[in-house]
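Repro case for the chain-ordering regression, as requested:
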Amino acid sequence: MTHELSDQVQSIVDNYLGRVRKHLKGLPEADRDELVLEIYSHIYESYMEAETEDEVQRVLDVLDRLGEPSEVVVSRLSGTIKSMGRSRNLPFYILTGFLISIFGIPLGIGGLALLVALGVTLAALTFTYFLTAGVLVIASWVTGIVTLIRISHPEFLGSYINTLSQFVDPPLGTILDLIGAGICLLLGLGMIWLGRHVPRGARFLFGLVGETFHSLRRRTLTAIGAGSTDDKPNGPELA
Amino acid sequence: MENKIRQLRKGILELAILGALENQTHYGYSLIRHLTRDRAIELTEGTIYPLLSRLAKEGLISARWTASSQGPPRKYYALTESGREAYEVLQGEFILLQDLVARASAPSDEDLNSKPGEIEVSEGTK
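-- result from build under test --
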């Protein structure tokens, strides 16, 4: 790539193109080369036409008008990955494209790590939630059965399970026990019933997080069209 | 707000790119120069490339590398047949929308004498 640019200018350009290239990791080699060549062509044309005396200032002006490497490549990269996912039918690529759209290139690995952490937390929360619900249901059954047995055998499992009927005289204690067991059962079943909505809630939560990052990223890209990674997954890129 | 501006510009810029390629081919830099020639609009030039890439992927424009008499080769873009059709349709739609916006803020004839607060959307602005 030497087309009569001075060494100093060439090294500035190479540095810029290197950053563009870095943002394009994950693209097929040929596509990456082609885009870098196209950007280089742009820089060359723009540089040759500029009139500033100082050549370093001149190339810096050119790069300034061109914008940050991330602006030049962000939407193209995620769009390309989406289309790779389509042609190879690998949902993984769609997911990757989606993640890049959400977190942007700058966040990179950090963003992915954050997402993984969020996922693990959510899984743990879900597990704990259903565990609690299950324990409540089991406890209510045990309490109910033990209470009923203790009507005729007051000492049944006396040293293992405490119920109110041991402290409050029957029949009041027994009734309170049964009411308590009923409440536990209702709570447990209620949690399980609510649990059916957990996936939807999780989707909503992730959507919210995703949207926040998305708009943050958009706000940092000041240029026209730089946000062309559409917020609609079935945007024109999927056409 | 910036997001709204960007969305609006993106769509219109795509239309402008198709329009610029209607009668001649362009490489990236010449296209930018063409679009900004009267300095009415300022572009972050790099952002045109994702748009070109997208339009090419949609088959509305085609791309071809051509050697330059001096300097590195240039990637020339041309309107495809489906791009030409899309441009006709989109341009017609754009003119209608432009008209809609222009008329939307102007008071319609029958409302000219009515008091503020009584103004209704007139049939003509549909």
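Ordering looks correct now. The longest helix of chain A spans residues 91-152.
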